[in-house]
Amino acid sequence: MKVKFERVTIKVKNLEKAVDFFSDLLETTFDIQPDEPKHEFTPAPDAYTKCRAAISPIGIELFEPDPVVEEEGVWNMTWRVDDLEKAKEDMREKGIRHLFDIKCGRWKETVYSPDDMYSVRWDLDEYEGDSAFKAMLRK
Fold it and tell me: 17: domain range?
């Protein structure tokens, strides 16, 4: 399976505060996730189906779940793939447990158990273009 590192996601309690902090510290900008369209989860996970997020061009995603988390910190690593269905088959063959899929516009993501990935949750993304958020807005 060929992958390209996409981003590391950090869970935060306050998205605006985290965007200000990391923008200043790393001299970068963040694109804020659009409110619409809504994400479709298959199957629906137990938690965090509502969230706000911001992504920087240097590969950092800030993720504010609803309900708000008590602990902030690294949440997952995201890898971009050209063929999500093929990547899912590769992961299945390796015995890595699939948790759920998310779809929004022309962006698709599949999420894997951290129990099978040395305690790091892995997300695999597929989308066209240079921005996951822009792909979410495409029909």
Answer: 4-137
